[in-house]
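Reopening this ticket.

The earlier resolution said the output was attached, but the attachment link was broken on my side. Pasting everything inline this time so it's all in one place.
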Amino acid sequence: MRHRKILSTKGTKIRRRRFTLVFLSISLLGLMATAILDTTPSALGQITTSPVEKKDIFKVIMTVQGLTHNTGDIVTIVSVNGESRVKLFDDSKTYVHSVKADGTGGLVEYVATFPNTTVKTGDLFKACVLTIKDSNLICETGTNSPALRPEFKDLFLQGERSTIPSSQAAKISDEE
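Inline output:
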């Protein structure tokens, strides 16, 4: 009898080992199948994420320099991708206080903001100033840079350069 008990114990151990081996084999095959299916391009596309892009609100800071007591009212215009921002500057209220004692050197600054306009890097914009008194229009074209910062344009009336230093200042001729 003892002999039978030993054989039955051995048989149980063998069955447990077989069951364990079958279970491990099935688990391993399942893990391999999952790994193979998860490396398909569609799964990779779902796993990878793109970095969050900061939305840039396009702005142009425009400075008009060289205003005098005789300049009169001016209109500033900034246009990009078919949209424009316009502002009237009344000479008696807006810039007369910035004019020097000799009657020159007045300036105005205008910030044109385009919050709902998509402006791509390299897109052109135009900044203009119109003197109402003589209908003189002076314009300059700029390019949107890739930096997340405003663009700057300095316009000069009457061919006069201000003593205010500006790295992006440019003299505008009356030809445009």
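Reporter confirms the inline version is readable. The chain has two helices and seven strands. The chain has two domains: 2-47, 58-156.
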